[in-house]
Every structure is written in structure tokens, then in C-alpha cells.
Specification:
This protein is of the alpha/beta class. It has one domain: Alpha-Beta Barrel (TIM Barrel), CATH 3.20.20. It contains eight helices and 13 strands. The longest helix has 18 residues. GO terms for molecular function: 3-deoxy-8-phosphooctulonate synthase activity. This is 3-deoxy-8-phosphooctulonate synthase. It is found in: Cytoplasm. InterPro entries: Aldolase_TIM, DAHP1/KDSA, KDO8P_synthase. Its EC number is 2.5.1.55.
Length: about 270
């Protein structure tokens, strides 16, 4: 598929990486619009194709009292409002077969969470909506195994698939990005690097996932050098008080500087080709 196939996507001729960015979860309308407005301004300035990301619900949580969402329809309507207000496409993750058709009414890209990417019925349901399907590589899977997830999308009558690497489990409480997998997965589909989830430290005894946000730029730079097609970055204006994944999100105030440096690195890498 071509990036230009996505409704409202901008800057597709800039020869840049594309960006999926936004909060982990939709906490409310004001916060979503505030984050989207800032990221749209930055990406327009830097000519980066941009997709707003926000989960309409969070199903994979450590504890039963963890934040899961503000209500499915309410959150999906906010995602639609972001798209209509700023003229950008949106992506959200789905967890059940019934989520696919529902979410497809509101967003442009359906994301399959890493823990669920082997769930055939879920992948097929997403593909059958006709939307782009962003397949997150399971933390337990090899890069080579992702060809089967992509093939499920193709066998469902769609060629609209991306792969997103979000790291591989290393022991019980750490994630490692194996950059050898990037060129492998790019043979199957456009490949995105999920920078912030790659820096999670899951399975903490507190039941709250930790993270290493100080390493965001290190991982992002390595992704650009290794020619990923896109980057996935969760960002928030107040990560410490975010309702989900605050420990590994990028503070929004640092996003423009980071992206500016990454664009410069991308231009340098492209000059070698």
C-alpha cells in the first residue's frame, strides 16, 4: 500500500518518515485536542506525515483497578473530532472482533496489540473493514514470524498492512529492540518502530508498568539510521499524571526538538542511498 492511500495524510511527498503519535489513552476531549494541536503544528513545520494515536480503551492492564477508558463511544467520537478539527488521520487499537467494525466507523487505521497479533479472527476482522491494519509484533515473536500476520491480512482480501516493532521481552521486566529485525520485517510490509513501548519495564511488583523515557532519543535515532518507515511515539503534556503508560511517554515539550534532530538524521541517511 501507499501512504497516500490514507485519508487526510499530509506531506507524503516530503520523503520523510511518518509519525504515529499521541497519548496512550483518550482521557477526555480537551487533552486529546490539546495534544493533537501541538503535534500537528510540529509535523506541519517539519513536513512529517502524521497520524494521531489514541486508545479508545485499554484492555491489557496489570490490575483490575487500572484505568481502562472513558467509554467506548465517547472516546471514539473524540478521535473523530480530532480528525475533523485538524484534518489528520487517526489510529486506535482494538481487542475483540466486535471492536473492528465499531472502531472503523471512527478511525482510519486499526491497530492490533502485540499480545493479540496471533489472534486470527481479530486480524481478519480488522482487515475486512478495509482500513489499514497496524500489526504490532508480539514481544514473544521473531521478526520472521510477522510474515504470517501480514499474510492473514492479505488472505482476507487487503494489502493494507503495517508492522510495528515494540521490542522483545528480555527477562521478566525489560524490553530490547533487535534492529536486525527491521530490514527483515520491511520485506513483508512498511515497518514502524514503537519507540516508547520499547522502553517499558513491565511486570513490576507494584502492578504499574515502569519505563525508561531518558532512552527515547537513543532508540528513535537508531530506528531512523536503520531506515524504519515510521515512528510510533506516545506523548503527553503531563506524563506523570497520565492515566496510562506515563512512565515511558515523552513529555510533549520535548517532541519538536526530538523530531527536528530525527529529520536531520533522516536527510543524512538518505544522502548515502
Amino acid at each position: 500500500m501507499q501512504l497516500s492511500d490514507i485519508p487526510q495524510i499530509k506531506h507524503v511527498d516530503a520523503d520523510n518518515f511518518f509519525l504515529l503519535a499521541g497519548p496512550c489513552a483518550i482521557e477526555g476531549e480537551d487533552m486529546a485536542l490539546r495534544i493533537a494541536e501541538k503535534v500537528v503544528k510540529i509535523t506541519d513545520k517539519l513536513n512529517i506525515p502524521y497520524v494521531f494515536k489514541g486508545s479508545f480503551k485499554k484492555a491489557n492492564r496489570s490490575r483490575i483497578d487500572s484505568f481502562t477508558g472513558i467509554g467506548d463511544e465517547k472516546a471514539l467520537k473524540i478521535l473523530r473530532k480530532v480528525s475533523e478539527t485538524f484534518g489528520v488521520p487517526t489510529v486506535t487499537d482494538i481487542h475483540e472482533v466486535s471492536d473492528a467494525a465499531m472502531a472503523a466507523e471512527y478511525v482510519d487505521i486499526l491497530q492490533i496489540p502485540a499480545f493479540l497479533v496471533r489472534q486470527t479472527d481479530l486480524v481478519v476482522a480488522a482487515a475486512q473493514t478495509g482500513k489499514v491494519v497496524n500489526l504490532k509484533k508480539g514481544q514473544f515473536m521473531s521478526p520472521e514470524a510477522m510474515k504470517h500476520a501480514v499474510q492473514k491480512v492479505k488472505d482476507s482480501g487487503s494489502d493494507k498492512a503495517w508492522i510495528t516493532d515494540r521490542g522483545t521481552m528480555f527477562g521478566y521486566q525489560d524490553m530490547i529492540v533487535d534492529f536486525r529485525g527491521i530490514p527483515t520485517m520491511r520485506e513483508f510490509a512498511p515497518t514502524v518502530l514503537d519507540v516508547t513501548h520499547s522502553l517499558q519495564q513491565p511486570n513490576q511488583t507494584s502492578g504499574v508498568t515502569g519505563g525508561r523515557p531518558n532512552m527515547i532519543e537513543t532508540i528513535a535515532r537508531a530506528g531512523i539510521v536503520n531506515q524504519v518507515d515510521g515512528l510510533f511515539i506516545e506523548t503527553h503534556f503531563d506524563p506523570a499524571n497520565a492515566k496510562s503508560d506515563g512512565a515511558n511517554m515523552l513529555d510533549l515539550q520535548y517532541l519538536e526538538g526530538l523530531l527536528s534532530r530525527l529529520v536531520a538524521i533522516r536527510k543524512t541517511i538518505q544522502s548515502f542511498n
